[in-house]
User: What shape does this take?
Amino acid sequence: MKYIRVPHAFVLIYSIVILAMLLSYIIPAGEYDRTENENGILVVDETSFEFTEQSPVHWTEIFRVVPAGMTDAAGIIFLIFIIGGAFGMINGTGAIEAGINKVVSLLKNREIILIPLTMLIFSLGGATFGMAESTLIFIPMGIMLARSLGMDAMTGMAMVALGAAAGFAGGFMNIFTVGVAQEVAGLPLFSGMFYRIIIQVVFVIIAAFFVYRYGKRVQRDMNNSYVYRLEKNAQAESYEFKTLTPRHIFVLLIILVGFGLIIYGVVQGWSTGTDLAAIFLAMGIFSGLVGGNTPNGIAEDFIKGAKEVTFGALIVGLARCILLILEDGTIIDTVIFSVSSILEGLPASIAAVGMFFTQFIINFFIPSGSGQAATTIPLMAPIGDIVGVPRQSVVLAFQMGDGLSNYLFPTSAILMAGLSIANIPYEKWLRFVWPIMLVWIIACAAFMVISLWIGYGPF
Assistant: This one.
């Protein structure tokens, strides 16, 4: 199955910018008063809305707003570039790939441990540095391992892809999704991480249970495989496991110390975007030096890593343009007032679960986590203020809706590329993944309700 043809994310978001400009001539202008809460964040006074004089946005602003949006979002854009470059320097050492290969090869014949542990490792990649495209290089390894255990390509693909998906949806330190969403919502960077870690572990357990059960069924009888014809015609494959060297081990220790420092900073409340960028930059430089790269090689790896996140960084600035147009036309509060009026009579738990499903569906059209966060959170956060859904729960709805659906919808380039590498038809993948996705969705709804019960915060 080929990609469903949808507009490029840049085209879609810029179309929304143009639509917002046109709506400024149609939607009545209105404003809420905003007051500072105890955390110093401006929040909507839900009783203060009133209509104001119309102030339509001139058509030329659709061009002027692009550099303005990039400037307004410069902090998070450059944070993404620096972190992307830092991981480029780390990846240039080969330590992460060698470390994963080592763990997996040691457990090669112990599938009851291998499958959940492999998925947990890839979930950590998804939760920290947003492992997405990087999973593609490990899919052949996963398939080779699965077949060596008497399982099939579907099992190998799922071990890698669904592990990363579980981490991406948990995202306790994913700057590209949770980081962007929290910055837009005005939340402290990576706040609320311990609840997200619990969510990630639950997602991994659910996925590992289904993958292991399916793999054992195939192991007993290959006719149970959803890709039986593929397995019947599969040629013997080999995968070259990279050797874990002492240099790799020291690089992995540097990464461990770096992440420990970041977590300590979050707990202590002093970790800002600047602190985070500095720690990642130091991790990258020290890793490159310890890993044996030359200064020129480290610089080239930095540029390569920054290039890989260019799309995600620029889409944040482009999505910020929507907010600026809505604010210039004084219609963003009217939209918030209209939506919140519909939701106001509903219990907060229903509104929270509804936000999750909304984000889940939006990811079909905007399969970019950073772009979806920058597009939706400016509206969702104040709506949450009015209907009683904490901003941290609003971010939670986004990250889970975005992270899980990346491995369901055929508009996801990562999913379709992975299936292409594995030679798995999309319809076969859909047959395999839908029960897992259904249980994940039920768990997400429960996590949204629980987040209200525990007063998930800081606000």
